[in-house]
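step=encode ok
step=design start
structure_in=
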């Protein structure tokens, strides 16, 4: 038979084992609770991120639908305007021949012809914006495309005392429509040059990115984009210039979208505008 002391010792050992097991259970639950809390925070962060992405996608879809409707309307108007313009130009030419011996009258006719040509150019710009863009994608060197675009912009930049620079790998193979991307870059660079009539700098930076093909940044040292214009900068017919159709950046936006890319505009902290492209 066990003595009283042995019974007491056994009871103490049993209680000790139970306390130890309870401690392990509590620690296990504590670890589990901590892991669940971490998972909850991670999921919460992902939900916030996905909500932000969904909101941005909805905004882009709404913008695309709005531009599509506007494009259809503009295309219809452009075609309706082009037909009578052709008639006006024809009759103005005939009138010019009739008054060729009357200098004062010929000056008026030439003004009519000049106005018609300006309207023809505007109609062509509208039709270029509204037509469906289908990139002819092929393997090419992005560095070469950018150099060609900057070469075309160089005379205007030199005349305005604006320095052009490019920074990126010597060669970067991508699949794009080189003509369309070259046109987009040229438009952005020329806009940056025009924003600095008294001189400045325009830089083009590019690099490969994970999960995509490349990123590109066109930045200048000009006055930047007015804050109230940032949300409308890519809208067709919106312009901050005294002269212009407001279609240049809208066409650039469509070119980038046709490559399944995104473009955004912002102002740099140090001053000047910046356009970022990801394709």
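sequence_out=
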């Amino acid at each position: 038979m066990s003595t009283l002391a042995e019974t007491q010792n056994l009871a103490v050992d049993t209680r000790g084992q139970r306390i130890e097991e309870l401690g392990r259970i509590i620690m296990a639950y504590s670890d589990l609770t901590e892991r669940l809390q971490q998972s909850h925070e991670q999921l919460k962060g992902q939900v916030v991120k996905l909500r932000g992405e969904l909101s941005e996608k909805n905004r882009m879809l709404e913008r695309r639908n709005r531009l599509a409707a506007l494009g259809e309307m503009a295309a219809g108007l452009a075609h309706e305007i082009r037909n009578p313009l052709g008639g006006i130009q024809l009759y103005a030419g005939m009138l010019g021949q009739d008054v060729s011996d009357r200098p004062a009258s010929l000056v008026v006719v030439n003004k009519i012809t000049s106005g018609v040509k300006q309207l023809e150019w505007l109609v062509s710009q509208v039709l270029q914006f509204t037509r469906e863009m289908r990139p002819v994608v092929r393997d090419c060197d992005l560095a070469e495309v950018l150099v060609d675009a900057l070469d075309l912009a160089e005379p205007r930049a030199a005349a305005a005392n604006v320095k052009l620079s490019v920074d990126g790998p010597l060669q970067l193979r991508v699949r794009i429509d080189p003509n369309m991307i070259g046109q987009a870059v040229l438009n952005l660079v020329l806009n940056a040059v025009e924003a600095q009539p008294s001189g400045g700098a325009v830089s083009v930076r590019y690099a490969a990115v994970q999960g995509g093909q490349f990123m590109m940044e066109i930045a200048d040292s000009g006055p930047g984009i007015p804050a109230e214009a940032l949300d409308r900068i890519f809208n067709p017919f919106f312009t901050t210039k005294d002269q212009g159709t407001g279609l240049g950046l809208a066409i650039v936006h469509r070119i980038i979208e046709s490559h399944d890319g995104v473009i955004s505009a912002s102002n740099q902290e140090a001053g000047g505008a910046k356009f970022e492209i990801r394709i």
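step=design ok
step=annotate ok -> The chain has two domains: 1-131, 138-278.
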